[in-house]
Amino acid sequence: PHLAHVSRGLAQVVSARPQDAMPLPSATVGMNAVLRSWQRKFQPTKEHRVLTLSIAYGSTKRILRKMSEESGFQLDEAQVDFPLDSEESVLRALKDALRPDTALVVLDVIPSNAPFVLPLDAAVRI
User: Fold this and answer.
1) 111 phi-psi bin (left φ>0, alpha ψ -120 to 50, beta other)
2) Angle between helices 58-71 and 27-42 (to 10 degrees)
3) Beta strands 74-78; 102-106: pairing state
4) Which H/E stretch holds residue 77?
5) Is the pLDDT of residue 1 over 80?
6) How many Cα atoms occupy the beta-carbon half-sphere of 27 within 13 Å?
7) End-to-end Cα separation, the chain, in angstroms
């Protein structure tokens, strides 16, 4: 009963149906579920690439490395150097690392190990 109550409350907060919202114990569990679901549905191969930023959450990078070993896709990292001179430098690194065979881009809007907020709208437009 408590989990159902919490799920209904969470669904209200994120404007979702209760059956589409589930509280998870950690961000790692959530990322693992989402990335593994993508892997099963998309079935990437050695012809595909996945891109993340060098400042990505450590457990996300570990999950992606394991998936790369399993599926054969190439894992790329856009290097983010500090100190940051502007948001544009992060966006430029992302744009420069994208390739025509990039199948997935994984971004942390608020990286756990870097003091900035990724301008997600601009990153998605790239």
Assistant:
1) beta
2) 20
3) unpaired
4) strand 74-78
5) no
6) 11
7) 44
Cα(93)–Cα(54) distance, integer angstroms: 10
pLDDT computed for residue 10 by the predictor: 87
Token output for 72: 């054969």
What the block records as the tokens of 34 is 């989402």
Confidence check: pLDDT of 126 > 80: yes
Residue with the larger pLDDT of the pair 72 and 7: 72
User: Tokens standing for 57?
Assistant: 């959450």
The tokens describing 10, both together, are 């969470």
Residue-wise pLDDT tens digits, 12-55: 998 999 888 888 889 899 999 999 999 999 999 999 999 999 99
**What values do phi and psi take at 102, rounded to 5?**
-70, 120
